[in-house]
Structure formats: structure tokens, C-alpha cells
Amino acid sequence: MTILRVLATIFAGPMLLIGIIWVLQGVNILPGSFMTGHIIWAIYGAPLALVGAVLVWWVNRKRG
Asked: What are the two backbone dihedrals, phi and then psi, of residue 63, each rounded to the nearest 5 degrees?
């Protein structure tokens, strides 16, 4: 089960990071890309970051 938790965290970590980057670029806070200033990227990035955060939390939570 530990291998599965590590693999899920490795998969979910980049999802969270990419989602945050897309949101910041979409709302024009993080410049330097074709995505900068296009709100659609914030709309795509928010659910991606949310799913990544929930997955990281869910696989690493303490089980009672």
C-alpha cells in the first residue's frame, strides 16, 4: 500500500503545481507564456489544482 501512496503523490503533486501555474497565468499574475491573461486557463487550472490537492490529502491522511 505504501507504493501506491507514493505513486499517487508523485502523480498528484505535478497536477497541483500545474493547476496553480495555469490559474496564475490565466489571471495575469504570472507572465511569460501564451496563456498569460487568458481567463480560460484559470478555469482549466482551478479544477486541476483542486483534484491534485484532494488526491495528495486523501492518499496521505492518517487512517484511524
From this structure: -100, 135
> Would the pTM of this model clear 0.90, i.e. be above it?
no
For the residues 29-34, what does the mean pLDDT come to? 91
HSE-CB of 11 using CA atoms within 13 angstroms: 12
Give Rg (Cα) of the chain. Answer: 14
- Judge contact between 41 and 22, C-beta under 8 A: yes
CA distances from 4 to 12, 30, 42 (A): 12, 33, 30
Please say whether the beta carbons of 45 and 20 come within 8 A.
yes
Cα(2)–Cα(21) distance, integer angstroms: 29
